[in-house]
Amino acid sequence: MATKIRVNDNVVFSQKEPFVLIAGPCVIESREMALETASTLKNITDKLGIPFVFKSSYDKANRSSHESFRGPGLDEGLDILAEVKDTLDIPVLSDVHSPEEAEIAGRVLDIIQIPAFLCRQTDLVLAVGETKKIANVKKGQFLAPWDIDQVVEKLESTGNHKILLTERGASFGYNNLVSDFRSLVRMAETGYPVVFDVTHSVQLPGAAGDSSGGEKEYAPALARAATAVGISSLFIETHPNPAEALSDSATMIPVDKMENLLKEIKAFDDLKKGI
């Protein structure tokens, strides 16, 4: 039987329920920008009746260059996310990079994300599971869909069955990704809700030399396709002005384009699920 993962009365992850939007800037650039973007997205999703979780990273530990902006760090970043959560009454998600971080971040985050590059790090996976918070595992670009079963078993070994599985594209030669939509079907066979990461799936890893490139013009098409196949959630990074973003500027969707995109996706989701 497919699992339902309930965050609160409004946000439920399920292959059969209306899709949940996970969205926000790639990295927290400032307190003001995080609050403003979260507020704008909340207004849009409230208007459209779409459940919403705010996502932004307090530390981008996997930047191509050591000189790239990483974010405000653990303490300040969690303070900002806590303010977003409390001020706007919305769940928050961010990623962690070590077992020690997982325990600290779990005091604030509603959903703890295991990054794609770290999804096979056993100590990290177990630490996230032991928080008993919802764990969102981003399937590594180097994994086959069925390889996620081992990660699921690690999380389940902690007694935590609140698991989300995210597809974010698979490595396709150098500096390129491809989305295999069979992956969504195969990962759903675990019984856990599946998330499709729209904007990371159009990333061109390392293609800009000291940063990643991207082809965000294809993001709407991939979002429609994934929704038609069947997902519990879409993960979309968005920014007030992507051209000036300090991380993933090539793939983020402008906030002012989100309402029309979400209207279109919602129509596909309603049709797929008979809502």
From TrEMBL:
Gene3D superfamilies according to UniProt: Aldolase class I
Domain DAHP synthetase I/KDSA intervals: 4-267
Pfam family, one: DAHP_synth_1
InterPro entries (UniProt xref): Aldolase_TIM, DAHP1/KDSA, KDO8P_synthase
Intracellular or extracellular location(s): Cytoplasm
Record EC number: 2.5.1.55
A biological process from GO: keto-3-deoxy-D-manno-octulosonic acid biosynthetic process
Protein name: 2-dehydro-3-deoxyphosphooctonate aldolase
Protein family per UniProt: Belongs to the KdsA family.
Cellular compartments per GO CC: cytoplasm
Top EC group: transferase
Catalytic activity: D-arabinose 5-phosphate + phosphoenolpyruvate + H2O = 3-deoxy-alpha-D-manno-2-octulosonate-8-phosphate + phosphate
Matching NCBIfam families: KDO8P_synth, PRK05198.1
Pathway: Bacterial outer membrane biogenesis; lipopolysaccharide biosynthesis; Carbohydrate biosynthesis; 3-deoxy-D-manno-octulosonate biosynthesis; 3-deoxy-D-manno-octulosonate from D-ribulose 5-phosphate: step 2/3
Keyword vocabulary terms for this entry: Cytoplasm, Lipopolysaccharide biosynthesis, Transferase
Keyword Transferase assigned: yes
